[in-house]
Amino acid sequence: MIRISIALLTAIFSIYLSLNSEIAGAPKTAFAANQEVKHLAKIRQVTFCLPRAGEGYFSPDGMSIVYQAYPIGYPFYQIYKQRLTTKTPVRISPGRGRTTCSYFTPNGKRILFASGHTAPHMDRTELEARKQATAGGRRRYQWVFDPYMDLYTVKVNGTELTRLTDTPGYDAEGSYSSDGKQIVFTSTRDGDPDLYIMNADGSSIRQLVDQPGYDGGPFFSPDNKWIIFRSDRKKKDMLQIYTISTDGKHEVQLTHNLETVNWAPYFHPSGTYFIWTRADYSRGPRFAQFNLFTMDIQVGNTEFKGGKVRQITFNDTADVLPVFSPDGNQLMWTTTRSADASSQLWIADWLRPD
Asked: Which fold has domain 7-348?
């Protein structure tokens, strides 16, 4: 197993889910609560049945979500689909090996995700993972660049598994263009994690970003002209937000403070701003507080400019991996503000005017 040490990606959950697991619930101060109500209403938890859940995305009709979660008694994340009117998750991934980064096709008929279930010696891998379990039953989160991980799609009921990539190296973190014709994803096939684009059927793969360090977490802009992503090319582990035109000719750095970690950017459907997760690492990872921020943007064919930044969450726990509903009226994110301090998905009505 090849592991690329991206310390901050590991620290994001290992610190907050392990070191600070005693902290849970709503913002601890009146100031924090008053700040959040400016942008968020009807904040509520939506995943309950699994020990840990996160990185959720909406279906095109906004009625369902897909996410990764630890099954009870199994050491690796699997992919689950859930109607928002219920609390019942349905597993749609194979059930073995590491899985991550699920995403609905724009027509809502299939789900894209990454899986390493074809890795050799799976029995031994699972046994080793179980041995690493903590006394309380929770393993510390690890971001593993599994070289056997490939991209797959499956029907929303979990049938007709179709493999899209079959190249040595980690292929994951995939998402669709709004027309469903292309997928942007992260791959280590050239030696380090870079961005690639391919047709929705897995054909015509081309490299979009080729920089040292980690480039990942990509998403298309609503008009499919730009891709937003995270990179630590300027300082190891200190992720910053970038955007690049889909032809690869124009690239813009949007965050510049190398004492902060910036990741998980996601466009609002209006295309006028994006949301992301930021934390101040100037005092070290133990004191880093992950909250959600938005940045106004002005976008053209060859220009992409960042503007005003607003802080959205002020919670004492970790708020990460934010996504908007297709109509832009709801925000979903992964947070440890749950009563038991476990990582779960929460949703709120989005109040910010476009």
From this structure: Neuraminidase (2.120.10)
Q: What is the pTM of this model?
A: 0.90
Sequence length of the chain is 354
Q: How far apart are CA 4 and CA 212, in angstroms?
A: 13
Q: For residue 83, what is the enclosing H or E element?
A: strand 78-83
Whether 322 contacts 276, CB under 8 Å: yes
Q: How far apart are CA 191 and CA 160, in angstroms?
A: 31
| Digit-coded pLDDT (tens) for 14-39 | 433 433 333 344 555 666 778 899 99
Q: Could you tell me how many helices (H) and strands (E) the chain has, helices first?
A: 3, 24
Q: What does the alpha-carbon distance between residue 67 and residue 124 come to, in Å, rounded to a whole number?
A: 26
Mean pLDDT rounded to a whole number for the chain: 89
Tell me: the pLDDT tens digits for 86-97? Answer: 999 999 999 999
Is the separation of the CB atoms in 308 and 273 below 8 Å?
A: no
Question: Beta-strand (E) ranges in 92-214?
Answer: 99-104, 110-115, 150-155, 162-163, 171-176, 182-187, 194-199, 206-207
How far is Cα 319 from Cα 32, in angstroms, rounded to an integer? 13
Element (H, E) at 57: strand 52-58
3-state secondary structure of 304: strand
Longest CA–CA span in the chain (Å) reads 54
